[in-house]
Write a structure and sequence with these properties.
The protein has 537 residues and is an alpha+beta fold. Among the domains are: 4-126, no CATH class; 341-402, SH3 type barrels (Roll), CATH 2.30.30; 412-517, Alpha-Beta Plaits (2-Layer Sandwich). The protein is built from 14 helices and 13 strands. It has helices at 7-20, 46-61, 94-100, 104-124, 128-171, 176-183, 185-218, 220-277, 290-309, 319-335, 337-352, 392-396, 426-438, 475-492, and strands at residues 25-29, 32-37, 71-76, 79-84, 87-93, 360-363, 366-373, 377-382, 387-391, 400-402, 412-421, 450-456, 460-469. The strands form four sheets. Strands 9-8-7-6-10 form a five-stranded antiparallel beta sheet. The chain has a three-stranded antiparallel beta sheet with strand order 3-4-5. It has a three-stranded antiparallel beta sheet with strand order 11-13-12. A hairpin with a 2-residue loop joins strand 1 (25-29) and strand 2. Helix 13 packs across helix 14. The longest helix has 58 residues, at 220-277.
Length: 537
Amino acid sequence: MWNRSLSPLLALLSLAALTAQPPGSPVLFDGVTLWTLTQPRANFSPAQRAEDVRLSLLALAGDPRRDLADLLEIQAPGESILLVDRVYLFAVTEADARAAGRPLPALFAERRDLALQAVQRYRSARSLQFYTRASLLSLAALLLGALALWLLRLLYRRTRDRLQQASDRFASHSHGLARLFRSFERQLMLLARASLRSLFLLLAAAVGLASLSFVLGLFPATATVSESVLLAASQTGRLAAAALLAYIPNLLLIAVVFALTYILLKITAALSRAIDSGAVTIPRFHREWAQPTYGLTRLILILFALVIVFPYLPGGDSPALRGVSIFIGVLVSLGSGSAMGNVISGLILTYMRPFQVGDRVRIADSVGDVTEKSLLVTRIRTVKNVEVIVPNSAILGAHIVNYSTNAQDHGLILNTTVTIGYDAPWRRVRELLIHAALETPGVLPDPAPFVHHTSLNDFHVSYEINAYTRHAAQMASIYPELHKNIQDAFHAGGIEIMSPGYLAVRDGNTVTIPESQRTPGYAPPAFRVHSQPPAQP
């Protein structure tokens, strides 16, 4: 009885024989090539002869009433004909024998035996006993495949753990190679794990494919599918191996480019950290430029590496991939105009250095401390603890007032204006303003505060007090204290603040100074009315 489990092997052998034979038309029956016809017979071409033989064999095998022992061999001039149960099956001609390089009787006997065996296999493969045996073999094959996959999974986990242990042991050494390995340990382990996972996935796919192909080859209805799967897998494997071998030079070039890029990135990162920490100084290169410059350099290096290796990537020269790349580039260029404007503005602001993180600034209508600088936006926290996000393009087109730039070195001058009547001595006003400024927390005694007479108005004089501070971030709290101290100082000095204007009739009116700060025994003046004698006629 013919074992259908051998059909994949027979298919491969038939394929090898077919590739070794001269071109012709194979006689295919039940998925197996019996022989190949290369010579015509009468008005029938080799392809027509092969199809006629296949149909005859199929009709004989599908009718179990026909006895295979009822053979009739007819020796005609120049050919031998085989009849089974008085039904024509095939013929072998002298031209066939000459093409095969064998005597006609021997070739005829060989093809007769092949045809009868094929018919017997066909009938046996469709019996109940065969299907029962094939089902049991299929179940056994599936169980073995599942067991093999489980063992592969267990082997993968153990191999991965052993690899990690070996890496840890090697990295614990103190020699130079171990130190170099520690520098690239993470990258090397990722590469090793990816390679190991790919290998075991490939083995798992091979086990699954073999099990599936074996099961499909057991049944006549799916035998051709099994052979097709094996043929496709073998062809795919050969093509993949050939493509991989041909791709090795490109792969080496890509590896060299990425290795050089990685080394350059490591060097620029180390230099950036050294400049940022102050260990390395470059003339006219500020420390705060280190990280932005590294980010820009990293982007340029990566893009340059991608431009170099792109033609050597698989499918890199494909017109479809080029079209997709151009389409994506157009979309990005059309949709990121404002974003690119903000990025360019962010780069310009970085190298202009108008402010740093932590500076107290005024940008447009926002006053606060800079909490974050990025390529797209700048974040400001106002004195009311409100976060304001300003696009960099808006900052570049607006006025920027930085209160913190000179605060530590030269001091920031805070100023406020009061208006005092002309009846108050200006020297006394100046003393009271300076005293109030010196009493304010955060105001520096040196340089000393100073007073400017800013204007002589209709009803009062404008005095501007100027005081130095190094705490630009505390402006919002220093100004209220300064105003309170000015008010207390003038009240204690007995001078009224006529701001912005004040109208009073002094006769009978109390001074506008709090009672607690008036002189002891103060009493409002009496209301006096003087009469004028009538005019003489």
